[in-house]
Design a protein that fits this description.
The chain has 123 residues and is α+β, with helices and mostly antiparallel strands. 24% of the residues lie in helices and 32% in strands. Helix 1 links the parallel strand 3 and strand 4.
Length: 123
């Protein structure tokens, strides 16, 4: 499992003020609390958040783009694994919902079966 790190602050601050290059807007797209699993060229992104209000527009945009390109995205919402709602998108299923940690585990197992039997050449 990969853990992503946020880039150091200040590296691209100048870009936000360079109107010749970015005439409308510039901003950071950072996704926090995400784990990434890879199997046979397939990716599963697991995003956790305690409240949907904490799930910002940039994160939504990034994860929606990953789902549209065929990756699987799970979003678990809740204070802890015993009290969660989970929404996910898989390339062959539009949306599904699980309501507890057992449901999440079942969906992750389903993803592993799907990823291990999928033909990566058709992706």
């Amino acid at each position: 499992m990969l853990e992503t790190q946020a880039q150091q602050s200040g590296w691209f601050d100048w870009l936000q003020h360079e109107t010749a290059l970015v005439p409308e807007a510039a901003g950071d797209l950072v996704v926090t609390s995400v784990s990434v699993l890879q199997l046979n060229g397939r990716f599963l992104y697991l995003k956790r958040t305690t409240d949907l209000a904490d799930f910002n527009a940039g994160e939504r945009r990034i994860l929606n783009a990953l789902a549209r390109q065929g990756d699987t995205v799970f979003v678990a919402v809740g204070p802890d694994p015993l009290h969660l709602r989970l929404s996910y998108r898989m390339p062959d299923l539009e949306n599904a919902v699980a309501f507890d940690a057992d449901g999440l585990l079942a969906l992750v197992r389903l993803w592993f079966v799907w990823a291990s039997t999928s033909d990566t050449a058709s992706a």
